[in-house]
Amino acid sequence: MLSFILRRLGQSVLVMAAVSLISFSLFNFVGDPVNNMVGQEATREDRVFIRQELGLDDPIPVQYFRFLGNALQGDFGLSYRIKRPVNELIKERLPATLELVLVSAVIALVFGIAAGVYTGIRRNGWFSKFILSGSLVGVSLPTFIIGIGLIYLFAVTLRWLPSSGRAGVVELGWWKTSFLSVDGWRSIILPAITLSLFQLTMILRLVRSEMLEVMQTDYIKFARARGLSERAINFVHALKNTLVPVITIIGLNIGGLIAFSVITETVFQWPGTGLMFIQAVDFADVPIMAAYLCFVALVFVIVNLVVDLLYVLIDPRIRIAGR
Amino acid sequence: MKNRKYLVASAVALALTSGQAMSENVLRWTSQGDALTLDPHSQNESPTIAMNGMMYESLVTRDTEMNLLPELAESWSNEGNVWTFNLRKGVKFHGGEDFTAEDVVFSFERARHEASDYKEQIKSVTEVKIVDDHTIELVTDGVNPILPNQLTSMYIMDKGWSEANNVASPQDFAAKEETFAVRNTNGTGPFALVSRAPDELTVMAAHADWWGKGQFPGNIDKLEYRPIGNAATRVAALLSNEVDFVLDPPLQDLKRIENADGLKTTTVPQVRTIFFGMDQGVEELRTSDVKGKNPFADIKVREAMNLAIDRKAIQRVVMEGLSFPAGMITSPGVLGNTEAQDAEIPFDLEKAKALMSEAGYADGFSVQLDCPNNRYNNDEKICQAAVAMFAKLGVKVKLEAIPKSQHFPKIQNRTSDFYMLGWGVPTLDSHYVFSYLLDSEGSWNAAAYNNARVNEITKAIASETDLDKRTMMIDEAWTQVRTDMPYIPIHHQVIAWGMSDKVDAPIASDDALRPRYITMK
Hints:
- The structure holds 2 protein chains of 2 kinds.
- Chain A is mainly alpha-helical.
- Chain A contains 13 helices and 2 strands; from the N terminus they run αααααααββαααααα.
- Chain A has a domain at 86-285: MetI-like fold.
- Chain A has a two-stranded antiparallel ribbon with strand order 1-2.
- Chain A starts with a helix and ends with a helix.
- Chain B is α+β, with helices and mostly antiparallel strands.
- Chain B has 2 domains: 9-226 and 502-520, Periplasmic binding protein-like II (D-Maltodextrin-Binding Protein, domain 2), CATH 3.40.190.10; 270-495, Roll (Dipeptide-binding Protein, domain 3), CATH 3.10.105.
- Chain B has helices at residues 4-19, 46-55, 101-111, 147-150, 159-164, 231-239, 254-259, 299-307, 311-318, 349-358, 379-392, 404-412, 430-438, 452-461, 467-484, and strands at residues 26-30, 60-62, 68-70, 73-79, 82-87, 125-132, 135-140, 191-197, 201-206, 222-225, 245-246, 263-278, 323-325, 366-372, 396-402, 418-424, 487-500, 503-504, 519-520.
- In chain B, the strands form 5 sheets. In chain B, strands 1, 8, 9, 10, 11, 12, 13, 16 and 17 form a 9-stranded mixed β-sheet that branches. Chain B has a 4-stranded antiparallel β-sheet with strand order 4-5-7-6, covered by helices on one side. Chain B has a two-stranded antiparallel sheet with strand order 2-3.
- The model of chain B is unreliable at 1-21 (pLDDT under 50).
- Classes of the chains: A mainly alpha, B alpha+beta.
- At the A-B interface, helix 2, helix 3, helix 7, helix 10 and helix 11 of A face helix 6 and helix 12 of B.
């Protein structure tokens, strides 16, 4: 068991190193930050001087190892754009992203499972067909169109909810939360729904097909023969057995939610890490881009690691194969 | 608590304004991008200058019509290479400190520091002398007739406050830590900073002790700024009444704002001209099928390229009417722009084709056009339209539309044959255009234009004090440029603002919001 964990940890470190190296070498293509850092009056000598100061003329491997060395000491440098430490910026903006992801995950789970069970049981009902065709929207429309559509419906036309931003935050130490005020909840609803739609549809379809399969199995038939109530059959015996693959998918998709939040945050001006990343790309703000990509890679690696470890606990076959 | 005095002052300002919450005029406004920093000498970028200009002041400023106006200086005069400024008396910084000549000297030194982004703008100033507490002399290297024009964003900081907070110089580019001035201010301006969360929310309150109180029409008590990056969301925030003012609504949404209840738009020609540059200096174009020579070096080709552009069609189709077709690369409002010089270059494909044949390019040639896709109004669409127009002339243009961070280095490093550029003129004087775009040494002259007389005039107008003579020289240079056609002018941009009917904000051609002129019902 211990050797298994160590081996997985070793692999994770390798993945992190590879991701950071690849993302770092891509920064050469995002453009020249110096041009954004000085006014149009700056002379060419000034620009050369700044490039040297920032070490932008050094070969990529040299820049990379300098970055890695600092990063290992927890120092990601100063943002070129807003001249503040990247660590601090990420720490400031992470709560917004995590809360958004959490609410979206809950929405996706609750509504995805409920609708999945319903459409699995009443597969020929008109409401099931309505849900299923409606769910196509979630899969096929790009996030930013859904977001803009929701804004125009709920903020501009109906005026029920704010169109953007993160109002009503309450400070709990350094963590700023939206959960403790009405305004906070009002502003998180639209972005959370937008972000959740894709996952929701996926869970819905997964649960539905699992349900359809389970409902054909013998033990359901026997349960019915035993005279159990429909409710007990559907929710206790059938649903339980559909959830194993769903949990796996959700685990793996938490990372995806964080990565996808880039677009949602941009549309809703949600002050999280994704919005910060987009602004950094626009400006060629390398320190923020590097730190953010490493952070996302870290999230993926951790989630995968946890899922792998859970497998070992749940499924003895993997443990045996691992020997 | 180095900044206790300042904190107390802003707390008082906050208490004063929130005490009268009933009648308070709060302007909630938005735009695409936040100010990069509140350090007034660290970033020479328009949104940063505009936001800092609400809290900080310079010796000389501009009103919404772009006229020079006294700000921290009450009057000024010039003799030879010395400019004398009489400073305003009784001015207080937000923290309560008195404004004196010492602060001016300090601020100029700070702006001339290596890490300052303003050192070029004031490079002609060699010395700042204190005559008395409220008089200073600026000594320039040679005569500089347009010095006041160059000082409108040269903001004055308090010496004591800056030294106490360890920000006596702007932040170094290779700095490791944030400096105090990035998120804290202490100016003399009409508004004092209440809170600052970059990219989220910036709140300012009217400065109770401002010297200009009652002299300006504005009645805003509080400003709340929230940047919204996505254009559609920005417009939605205005439509849903969550903000009162949008600085940069997308042009295609203006009609929609206009048609909404309780909203209006206003437009003005911007001091920014969009044009194409053709590298006439290299031996052989890098991206052309013509080898051994440079087609752009031939004036006939440059003229043909100019005649092939249907500027009215671009205005009508691409810009939906929101642009002014141009005949020169600088805008109305800048000294040197005259109706004759700016007369639209006619669209004449027949003549253009004839010129191409004369030049020996009857079958055209190929070249790559470099174009930004996130810098100017509809930049990429303008380039696409132009590509189609050049095709009719037989010039096969390959379009490379890329983000600005990749586009501008190409111009900087002289690696583009053919490029789009937009040029604004903060000094509102042609010298700024000549010295960067037309002088053979100009740092943005990637067209490699080199005309001896234009170079000579660029030098001469920097120190010519006879204004009539100077204006004539400027006109002479522009006539030469119109003959040589080193650039292809397209149009002058238009600025559009969207706002609630409750707000009356006079629009300015430099796109800066000046809250001292804004009234709210």
